[in-house]
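## Example record

The block below lists the input lines for one assembly entry, exactly as stored, with component labels intact.
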Amino acid sequence: MLGKLFRRRRSVGLDVGSGSVKALTLEARGAEVAVAGYGSVALEADAQAPQVSQAIHAALAQAGADSEPVVASVGGPEVVIRQVSLPPLAPSKVIAALEMQYRELGLLPPEESILDAQVLRRSKDGVSNEILSVSAPKQLFEERTTLLRQAAVNLQILDIEPLAILNGALHLTGLEPGELLVVVNIGRQSSVLCVYSEQGPVVARYLEVGAEAFTEQLRVAFQVSPYSTETFARTLGAAEGPKAEAACREVVERMAEDIRLSLTFYRTEYDRESLPRYALGGWVEIPLIGRWLSDRLGLNAPFESMDPLKAVEVKAAQEAEEGKVGTQFLQSFGLALRGL
Amino acid sequence: MTARFSVDLLHPGRVAKTWQDWFVGTQGRRRLLLTAVGFGVVLVIVAAFPLVISWRLSGPESDLPRLRQDLARRDGDVRVLKADLQALAVEAKRQVRWAEVMTALSQQIPPTLKLLRVEALRSAAPPAAPGQPAPAAQPAGEGELRIEAVTALKPGSPNMLEIAQFMAGLMKDSAVNKRFQLKNWEIKPTSATVNVAAPAQGPGEKFLQITIVLSEIGR
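Predicted structure tokens for the full assembly:
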């Protein structure tokens, strides 16, 4: 145990998204972590398995983790994350009890899903435990593991996307008791909204709004070529700000509404007292998104930027490549943390 | 660990991972109990060890005064025995020394000389002068050997020659010269009334009394 404490540990997080593949290598000594390497490779919208495999290899090579075991994840609206109370049970019985609940609730039957659980804490009454259960359709699980096997990736752990995002955000924010974390991770086609506090459960929702919705609005408003829209969005100046905000108003409004509804539900049902902290990760290439969202939500400050490359020591002597915004590594950072 | 959430679809069912989780569940109470019993046993062993040592030492500890008395008594006995042995050694040495001296005297003395007295004297320390510190104690064995003998006075002084030969022979004898040195000697005529079994004592015969004093060589 002491050896493990003082030994340098290393873990690689691999985030295979719809728009890009991101890899991040973390090193830890004791409680301190440092980024040893990171890489990101964009994917075409219609990329097939061979292209994804190539992108995985390229991202891992950039992260300096060619043949190391990796922590990857699956995600999507089909993945169910629940927090339930169960009486104290043996670990082998926990899964059986959860499967029974799943049948009763009409969720995915055990033969069609992969189910795992984690004992989070003993509940206050002392006779039951708080269990975090996750289940993913077997098809989704097999698609992801097959893809990684074809890419000759040595898979160490298969996590769940929202939990990886939360793990990363919890590490970066250092969330304290009495605080409620609202984190939005923007993907290419959809975004993940996670709400969590010590007093409540993990709530994860997939929003039908992603980076493409923003870039499409900007492309139409500013008459930009589809190939240069992302570059344009990244370099959006203050002069174009009001026009861009007006163009993206509807998209921002939808996202803000989803956040507001989820937070209201969470505070009504689980935790009225904790103070919300808003964080933003993923595709944040329009620098003003955080401010637009906070304006819509009536907040005084913009969202906190979840950038592991700024918040954590970076050992890798890598040039900041164009388009590599640190926030996009939030999920891969959370995955790498999981492997330490 | 660093990550708050630790599910793994690749290895589902590994629910208990941390040591806290080990105590959760139906087996938790039993494990907690076993651990508590284990700790209790260790504590009992740790606590009992000094007690056992103390208990084992308590018997001899009560005997300690008696043993100390016994030791003091035996120490006294040893001291007395040592003093006796030392005294015996001194006496044995004295006897050996005297036996050697007597042998030397009997060998060296001429037939005309008759020994009157052989005595060992302890030489007296000179009195300390007023205002001076007392002299150091005289070393053991530093004494005098006083030999008194008589011989008939004859004309032509052949006795004197014999006396000289006797003294010379005595001082050459290794049994004598390694312990004594000649301090002084004296020859004086004496009357016939001297109470000795003088050789060929006749009426009106004259005698010479010889006194030789040997002082012991300090070692």
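The interface with chain A takes residues 1-17, 21, 24-28 of chain B (CB under 8 Å). The beta strands of chain B are 114-122, 143-152, 180-190, 207-216.
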